[in-house]
Design a protein that fits this description.
single chain; 11 helices; 15 strands
Length: about 325
């Protein structure tokens, strides 16, 4: 398992360390400057908050250098992959350019050419630099939480959950900038290729992981907070034929197990865990565990306020509540 922090702060990250003139130039300086505000935010909002880089996280440049180093080693170990690794990673000057190339080639069709998509994706990232930051956060999240991810380049090259989220980020940008026809065309290709159906109007935070990802469905007005982990065959759907706000709102640090269905404009609070196969029809309070059809809340045995809290999405623990919660009956 990779290192996981037991505390998450809520200061939004708009720039990485050293990205702007006059800003701290190292990760250590960057965190030192933010520490006081982070502590204040933690006290005001509780332990489940928005994504922020941890001390052990690599900077964007360090991450790109590591990805290139891994790809070089893999190309030497497996010569049959040398051409593939060059075209996808080693032939590019940045991580975001590599991501754009990968997505363009995966989503291309006979009538929507990879060169057209590459130009589109590159222009979108140039117009909205924050999207590249979101992509980096997602890659760090996957490496932190998925024990099957041994290298950063594995996530970049092979994890379709990561691919689906990044492609959606571009489709969402198009949707919010009045290019809805192109956004829907891109969404259709994402659904066809990755088997993940996310309406381009849905909003997704940073540091989000779709584990396995097959069969995930997310509706138009759904919102997913930062640091969430969502497994395969999860539905965040609407109810009825009305328009307007009609899909679930998922807080920060939430873990949603495989096969969960959440319907309607309900809220799943920060730091909550929804057990696999559950059906959620009403709101779930923060820092709760809910299981069943329909879900019911489980009362925890140890309610000590001094007990350390770890967001379920960071732990990825889907079964311990059987022992930790007092009223679970088979």
């Amino acid at each position: 398992m990779h290192c996981v922090s037991c505390r998450v702060c809520s200061i939004p990250v708009h720039r990485w360390a050293g990205d702007e003139e006059g800003k701290p130039s190292t990760p250590s300086d960057y965190f030192a400057v933010r520490e006081a505000d982070a502590e204040k935010e933690l006290q005001e909002q509780g332990p489940s908050c928005a994504w922020t880089p941890e001390q052990y996280h690599k900077s964007p440049q360090q991450l790109w250098e590591m990805v290139r180093s891994e790809a070089t080693a893999d190309s030497l170990a497996e010569p049959a992959l040398a051409s593939f690794l060059y075209s996808t990673i080693l032939g590019h000057s940045s991580l975001e350019q590599s991501i754009c190339f990968l997505l363009a080639n995966k989503l291309a069709s006979s009538t929507l050419l990879s060169t057209q998509l590459m130009e589109l994706f590159t222009s979108v990232l140039k117009s909205e630099p924050g999207l590249a930051e979101d992509m980096l956060c997602d890659m760090l999240a996957v490496f932190d939480r998925d024990p099957a991810c041994d290298k950063y380049c594995q996530c970049l090259l092979y994890f379709k959950g990561f691919h689906a989220i990044q492609a959606h980020r571009i489709a969402h940008w198009l949707w919010t900038h009045g290019r809805k026809t192109l956004a829907m065309a891109l969404q259709s290709r994402i659904s066809d290729i990755f088997h993940v159906d996310i309406h381009p109007g849905a909003r997704i935070g940073r540091g989000v992981m779709f584990d396995h990802a097959t069969g995930i469905v997310i509706g138009e007005t759904a919102v997913i907070g930062d640091n969430c982990s969502i497994l395969h065959h999860v539905t965040l759907g609407g109810s009825g034929t009305g328009t307007g706000d009609r899909h679930p709102k998922i807080g920060n640090g939430v873990l949603i197990g495989a096969g969960v269905v959440v319907l309607g404009d309900v809220k799943v609070g920060d730091g909550s865990k929804i057990g696999a196969g559950s059906v959620v029809l009403t709101s779930v309070p923060p820092h709760s565990t809910a299981v069943g059809v329909p879900v019911r809340l489980l009362k925890r045995k140890d309610t000590s306020p001094t007990a350390p809290f770890v967001d379920p999405a960071l732990e990825m623990d889907q079964i311990s509540f059987i022992e930790d919660w007092s009223d679970y009956i088979i």
